Amino acid sequence: QVQLVESGGGLVQAGNSLRLSCAASGRTFSNLAMGWFRQAPGKAREFVAAVKWSGDSVRYGDSVLGRFTISRDNAKNTVYLQMNSLKPSDTATYYCAARTPGHLLASKESEYDYWGQGTQVTVSS
Question: In the 3-class helix/strand/coil scheme, how is 83-117 assigned residue by residue?
Fold first, then answer.
């Protein structure tokens, strides 16, 4: 089992930045590929970003490409999502997810085995 705890959400004005963190426990973190998804009210969960176990391969959703950066620190068992140039359309609950094997990136919900509880991000105009 893997436990995931997100933090760093909050209220921010459009154009500003926010960094989310996701702390993992329960399994060797470096064996996991990690992802971020988000879900706005009334909408389906959307892929945001993913990083494989080594941190040297990443993937982004089209709506965040060029603005968001995913990274990980295997020594701290933590994955991060740096969000810059935030827009009101980025308002959502952001979820951290983990999957094995760790060398494969994934962008579909169904490909992830473990999920956090989510952290709310609200971007005001």
Answer: ECCCCHHHCEEEEEEEECCCCCCCCCHHHCCEECC
